[in-house]
Design goal:
Radius of gyration: 38 Å
Strand content: under 5%
Largest sheet: none
Distance between the termini: 86 Å
Order of helices and strands: HH
Number of helices: 2
């Protein structure tokens, strides 16, 4: 299960707080049962809002292939016309 994002936590928390305040003010309840029902319904609404916030899509990283080797393996070069003396077996 993926971890919740910061946006999900923020939207869910704000929804719980504001919906609780709105329902308490609109219902004008003073009983414990009424307050508990409002709290549970606000938590359910906050959870619903948090789960419907779109998840960020995973970033696709472009994979760069290494450049193709066009050159063949290096060939040793024989020096011509060098002034080195070679010994011959006598």
């Amino acid at each position: 299960m993926p971890r919740p994002t910061a946006a999900q936590i923020a939207y869910g928390s704000i929804t719980v707080i504001f919906s609780t305040l709105a329902m308490l003010l609109l219902s004008q309840t003073t009983s414990t049962v009424g307050t508990a029902i409002i709290a549970v319904s606000a938590l359910a609404l906050g959870l619903l809002v948090a789960m419907t916030v779109p998840q960020p899509k995973p970033r696709v990283v472009a994979f760069r292939k290494p450049a193709a080797r066009t050159a063949e393996e290096p060939v040793p070069v024989v020096a011509t016309g060098s002034k080195t003396k070679t010994r011959t077996a006598a």
